[in-house]
Amino acid sequence: MWEINPLNGKIEFEDLTKKLILSNSRNDLNNFYEINNEIVFVNRTPSKISSLDIKSKELVWEKEFEKINNEIPVFNNLKGTKNMFGVLGLNKELLIYY
After folding, report:
1. Beta-strand (E) ranges in 5-81?
2. Can you give the residue range of the structural domain that contains 12?
3. Could you report the per-residue pLDDT of 31-58, keeping only the tens digit for each?
4. How many separate domains does the chain show?
5. Which residues of the chain have pLDDT under 50?
6. Full-model pTM
7. Could you tell me which residues come within 8 angstroms of residue 84 by beta carbon, excluding any fewer than 6 positions away?
8. CATH number, domain at 60?
9. C-alpha distances in angstroms, 7 versus 1, 10, 21, 50?
10. Which residues sit opposite 42 in a β-bridge?
């Protein structure tokens, strides 16, 4: 995870791999979404959505998905606003969260 320090303008990098590997979490899409001071991102395998607190850099929640119509959903798009976000699956299933 990288961020720009507003006090000195330097880019700071923190490798969260060891934290995230314990829960098998990673961002498999080329985008993520910020909502309520959290970063929401999508895993494709396993199929789940995760949220990381921006300040503490700890996982806040995860939602792993079961099969839909006998298939594990694979998400390929993440969109949102400040109040909600949604993910679109390869089979056009849409899941919206508030």
Report:
1. 11-13, 33-35, 38-43, 48-53, 59-64, 75-80
2. 2-97
3. 788 888 888 888 877 788 888 898 888 8
4. 1
5. none
6. 0.70
7. 35, 96, 97, 98
8. 2.40.10.480
9. 18, 8, 31, 30
10. 49
